[in-house]
Specification:
18 strands; single chain; about 35% helix; 6-stranded antiparallel beta barrel; rod-shaped; 4 helices; alpha+beta; 3-stranded antiparallel β-sheet; about 425 residues
Length: about 425
């Protein structure tokens, strides 16, 4: 049994060379695994680091330049001069001759009004004036007739008075020689006195007639002048009631209802002069304290065209928390301006002529203060905290955190704000 056991090949000792090779293979495998682990530890973060494509971002560099603080508002282009035509009389609309949008020439009729009442008013004033003139003429004729009668009576009384005075003289001489009695002398003297009194009364009547007639004529002349003015005004109202364009322009509005009564002073039509424009700008009353006349305003007509102006007037009424400004334009006849054209308005409330500035974009949300942005450093974008100041519709003022020449991502990076660095591919 012992010989059989010792002769079994399974019970022979293992070759040391084989054991050494197997041990080396195990060590090599462990080393390879450790190396792979080290490689993954060193390179995997680089492989999975967040990145952004360079062609999907917009960047801008920090520069020196002027920065304006602006309030963004909306505006409407309107004609600088718009004439409103009012009815000068109580009437009614018979016919609309031109509709809104029609191009008008000076003197062109717009609507037809019922003028019968106005014509009757003119005729009535003329008739009243004619009656007053006739009355004055009659007064003058009556005065001449009565003056003629008084003049005749006055001359006769003067003759009677001279005759009686002569007789009194004769009677005095005759009474001196006893030819006439004292009683006869007194009788002649009394008659002469009575005639003198009558003569004075006629003269007084003549003066009263002249004064009375003059007062009546003056009163009539005042009434006539009043009637002449009223008649002239009635004729002017009749003339203005022929609603005509008094300048070249465009009809922007017209009374819409044919046959409707129109009261004196009621608006009939509007005519706009399209050779020059202004802007009506609306802004929230939250900015009321920052607003004032003469503030500069820039209007964006399209992506590339702007028109400058200044606040000419701030309307006193606030409608639904909205303030309306009238803006006078420097180039009121700009070729791109059109009536009722909507524009973006930027009201300049402050300006710095020299500041660090950065082009505006969605990378900043909110107003002045602290913000986190991504600054390009080599092949990466590094999150950096900055402070901004005033802002226009084109630029932000950079107060701190950036230097002139720094390149900043100005497109939206809100999905990366939780990271400190983003790789640029």
């Amino acid at each position: 049994m012992d010989e059989q056991t010792s002769s079994n090949p399974m019970d022979r000792p293992v070759d040391p060379t084989f054991l050494r090779r197997r041990r080396l293979k195990r060590i090599a495998a462990s080393a390879a695994g450790l190396g792979a682990a080290v490689w993954l530890f060193l390179w995997l973060p680089g492989l999975i680091r967040p990145s952004v494509d360079a062609d999907r971002i917009r960047t801008a560099k920090v520069q020196q330049g002027p920065v304006e603080e602006t309030i963004t508002a909306s505006g409407t282009i309107v004609p600088e001069f718009e004439q409103v035509l009012f009815s000068p009389i109580d009437t009614r609309l018979l016919r609309i001759l031109e509709k809104p949008g029609a191009v008008l020439e000076k003197g062109q009729p717009i609507v037809e009004l019922d003028l019968n009442g106005a014509r009757l008013e003119v005729e009535r004033r003329e008739e009243d004036l004619a009656l007053k003139r006739n009355r004055r003429t009659q007064l003058e004729l009556d005065e001449r007739q009565r003056l003629s009668d008084l003049e005749t009576r006055l001359r006769l009384k003067k003759l009677d008075l001279r005759r009686l005075q002569t007789r009194v003289g004769q009677y005095v001489e005759l009474q001196g020689i006893g030819a006439v009695s004292q009683e006869a002398l007194q009788q002649v003297q009394l008659e002469a006195q009575r005639t003198g009194i009558e003569l004075q009364q006629i003269e007084e009547d003549r003066r009263n007639l002249l004064e009375s007639t003059r007062a009546q004529v003056e009163a009539l002349e005042v009434e006539m002048r009043t009637l002449e003015r009223e008649g002239e005004e009635a004729r002017r109202r009749l003339e203005r009631a022929r609603v005509l364009a008094d300048r070249n322009g465009v009809l922007t509005a017209v009374s819409p209802v044919v046959g409707a009564p129109i009261r004196q002073g009621e608006e009939i039509a509007r005519i706009a002069d399209l050779s020059s424009f202004r802007a009506d700008v609306t802004v929230s009353d939250l900015h009321a304290r920052r607003l004032g006349t003469a503030l500069p305003v820039r209007l964006r007509i399209d992506e590339e065209s702007f028109v400058s102006g200044r606040v000419a007037r701030i309307l006193p009424t606030v409608d639904n928390n909205i303030i309306t400004l009238e803006v006078e334009l420097e180039d009121s006849a700009h070729a791109l301006l059109r009536p009722n054209q909507r524009v973006d308005a930027y009201i300049v409330t402050a300006r710095k002529d020299r500041a660090l500035r950065l082009k505006r974009g969605p990378f900043i949300r909110g107003g002045a203060g602290l913000h986190e942005v991504f600054v390009i450093r080599g092949g990466s974008a590094v999150k950096t905290e900055i402070r901004t100041g005033i802002a226009s519709f084109e630029h932000y003022e950079v107060v701190e955190g950036l230097l002139e020449g720094d390149e900043v991502i100005i497109s939206s990076m809100k999905d990366y704000l939780h990271l400190d660095e983003v790789q640029i591919k």
